[in-house]
Write a structure and sequence with these properties.
It contains 11 helices and 4 strands; from the N terminus they run H-H-E-E-H-H-H-H-H-E-E-H-H-H-H. It is mainly alpha-helical and 323 residues long. The strands form 2 sheets. The protein has a two-stranded antiparallel ribbon.
Length: 323
């Protein structure tokens, strides 16, 4: 546990705080019946607690394994840790007060809170951009996991940036200002019918979806590569890392296409649970194209011979070196 905590102490401290925050939010859901924009008041901070926990642990591990730019990335990670604590503290405070934290400019205090959050999010994005650049110097034991991590970091950066699509006031807000400037729902005001827990609109477009899907490429693509590596030890068609690398590339293309698809679907005001037209056909094209490409990779991979470069590369000491 001490070794894990030493990956990046500030980010791992944030992860520990998010565990506490998750417990607080779960208790809040049990004892507090208030709702904010159609959801239980503690649902939003609960989602942020879990997301920030995953984000912090992932980047702590990545920074610890960097062969170059580790000092710069460590400083950036520390700034990120501070920004995350500020953002989550304000979200928790808003939940405790029974009000919304994002887009709220109804009072001078609310405006100050939203401005502070906006600044912390921008700082977070800039520092994440720096750490994403540093990840391109990272080399893991196999090329498939290395590419998965790099691709996941880039798509996650894009997903994080998509949050800025929510910050502009809608035409309805400009016409009839009620103290809110910005929205995640497209087509109707925030707070309509939504999916359980996630809250994503079931009747209109929702920009939280591409933001969420994009950001978590940082976990899902590397996890996919890790699972392929595990399967490669038990199933011969995946034993060659060149095959696993091609599958990772297929997964990356499908994932990036999915982020683009749900982004334009949300902007078009179409619900994720009721796709139609070009978005329905686009989803099927991504799914079928991904499956066919994966099958083609596996079929052609049977003829490939192990490559000498597939041997695991030596990694630098993840803790202590380069600090």
């Amino acid at each position: 546990m001490k070794t894990v905590f030493a990956w990046h102490r500030p980010l791992m401290t944030v992860a520990a705080l998010m565990l506490v925050s998750t417990i607080v939010c779960l208790v809040g859901l049990l004892v507090d019946p208030r709702q904010v924009t159609g959801l239980d008041a503690w649902t939003k901070p609960l989602k942020f607690s879990i997301s920030i926990l995953l984000y912090s642990v992932t980047w702590a591990w990545l920074i610890a394994h960097l062969p170059r730019w580790r000092r710069t990335a460590h400083v950036a990670g520390t700034v990120v840790a501070v920004a995350l604590v500020v953002e989550q503290a304000l979200i928790l405070g808003a939940a405790a007060a029974g009000t919304t934290s994002h887009f709220n400019v109804s009072t001078p205090l609310a405006t100050g809170i939203w401005t502070t959050m906006a600044v912390s999010i921008t700082v977070l994005y800039v520092c994440t951009f720096l750490t994403t650049v540093a990840v391109f110097f990272l080399r893991l034991p196999t090329r498939s996991t290395t590419i998965a991590v790099r691709a996941g970091a880039v798509i996650a950066l894009v997903g994080m940036g998509l949050a800025y699509l929510m910050t502009s006031p809608t035409s309805q807000q400009l016409h009839d200002f009620q103290g809110i400037a910005g929205a995640h729902t497209v087509g109707i005001p925030d707070g309509g019918p939504g999916l359980p827990l996630l809250g994503w609109s079931t009747v209109a477009g929702d920009l939280r979806i591409p933001h969420f899907v994009g950001m978590h490429a940082l976990q899902l693509l590397p996890l996919f590569a890790i699972l392929l590596g595990w399967a490669g030890r038990h199933w011969r068609p995946l034993a060659d890392d060149r095959v696993r690398l091609r599958l990772v590339i297929v997964a990356t293309v499908v994932y990036a296409g999915t982020v683009a698809l749900v982004t334009f679907q949300a902007l078009a005001g179409q619900s994720i649970v009721r796709p139609g037209g070009v978005f329905l056909w686009g989803g099927w094209a991504l799914a079928i194209g991904g499956v066919l490409s994966a099958v083609l990779v596996l079929v052609t991979g049977r003829r490939a011979r192990p490559h000498p470069d597939d041997r695991p590369a030596l990694e630098p000491d993840p803790v202590g070196a380069g600090r």
